[in-house]
From TrEMBL:
It holds the Pfam family ABC_tran. The keyword Transmembrane does not apply. Keywords: ATP-binding, Nucleotide-binding, Transport. GO terms for molecular function: ATP binding; ATP hydrolysis activity. SUPFAM superfamilies: P-loop containing nucleoside triphosphate hydrolases (SSF52540). CDD domains: ABC_NrtD_SsuB_transporters. Residues 19-252 form the ABC transporter domain. It comes from Agromyces rhizosphaerae. This is ABC transporter. InterPro entries: AAA+_ATPase, ABC_transporter-like_ATP-bd, ABC_transporter-like_CS, ABC_transporter_ATP-bind, P-loop_NTPase.
Length: 273
């Protein structure tokens, strides 16, 4: 789907931003059962930025991501992607969910799952195969294309789901707790994988996670949402340099400071302020 409304005015926020969230609110239901999930949220994300989104449980993180994906229409405000106000799934966007077992089709091989987003396009067969091979190679699954998802470990299945997102050549990748269902060691490998593919594919990434350490380890910025209705508690720059390492980055005093700061914001400790 490529539903975008005609551009009638320039996007608000920072000029050149990939994503602009402009005074977005979302209310589920109405009347007595209305639930105000997001309240007047505004921020911008620049090209190639990696932005983590964290917040208390039920704060509205998934609601925000679905709004950015064009899957939910905000009750108030608007989302702009690459200068266009969205009214549906924006072009050049892909999403990766936590539950890889439900997002992969078990009756298709890994290769055909990865090729799935190219289904309706007029990409020639040879080019299609090249894109699939490149995506599988990028996630370390070269040579596994003929297997079926259920023949792979959980971490490998999530890598297939990431490869499928890459096959559509997204400029914007939205990830909703993508590593919550894998063990700690696999998770570290996937975190480093995502940093590598961000550079290789030149993408902007918004990454929802419950894991405070992960949010800091991966990101250029951490957006901390408040308790519901969620607004922006703090927009934190992560000054840890462009390359990260699972051991040395996590030992860095700045990393330790930031993870404590984010934790206090989420747990409502006034010492953070
Ligand atoms: N379709 C829906 N209809 C009604 N309420 C909903 C719907 N989807 C979510 N909610 C409510 O909106 C609030 C925010 O939900 P959301 O899933 O966005 O939060 P979250 O921060 O991602 O949650 P979690 O930390 O548990 O992953 C929750 O109270 C949830 O129950």
């Amino acid at each position: 789907m490529t539903n975008t409304q005609p551009v009638t005015t320039a996007a608000p926020g920072v000029p050149g931003a990939t994503v602009v969230v402009d005074h977005v609110s979302h209310v589920y239901g109405s009347g007595d059962t209305a639930h105000h999930a997001i309240a007047d949220l505004s921020f911008s994300v620049m090209p190639r930025e990696f932005v983590s989104i964290v917040g208390p449980s039920g704060a509205g993180k998934t609601t925000l991501l679905r709004t950015l994906a064009g899957l939910l229409t905000p009750t108030e405000g608007a989302v702009w992607v690459e200068g266009k106000r969205i009214a549906g799934v924006p072009p050049g966007m892909a999403m990766v969910f936590q539950d890889y077992s439900r997002s992969l089709l078990p009756w298709l091989t890994v290769e055909r799952n990865v090729a799935f987003p190219l289904g309706g396009s007029d990409v020639p067969k040879a080019e299609r195969q090249r894109i699939v091979d490149e995506a599988l190679d990028a996630v370390g699954l070269a040579g596994r294309g003929r297997r079926y998802p259920w023949q792979l470990s959980g971490g490998m299945q999530q890598r297939v789901a990431i490869a499928r997102a890459l096959a559509s050549r997204p400029r914007l990748l939205l990830m909703d707790e993508p590593f919550a269902s894998v063990d700690a060691q696999t998770r570290e490998g996937l975190e480093d994988l995502v940093l590598r593919i961000r550079d290789h594919y030149d993408m902007t990434i918004l990454f929802v996670t419950h894991d405070i350490d992960e949010s800091v380890y991966l990101a250029d910025r951490v957006l901390v949402l408040s308790r519901p209705p969620a607004t922006l508690a703090e927009d934190i720059a992560v000054d840890l340099g462009p390359s990260r390492d699972q051991i040395t980055t996590r030992e860095d005093p700045e990393f330790i400071h930031l993870r404590g700061h984010v934790a206090r914001l989420i747990h409502g400790d006034d010492r953070a302020r």
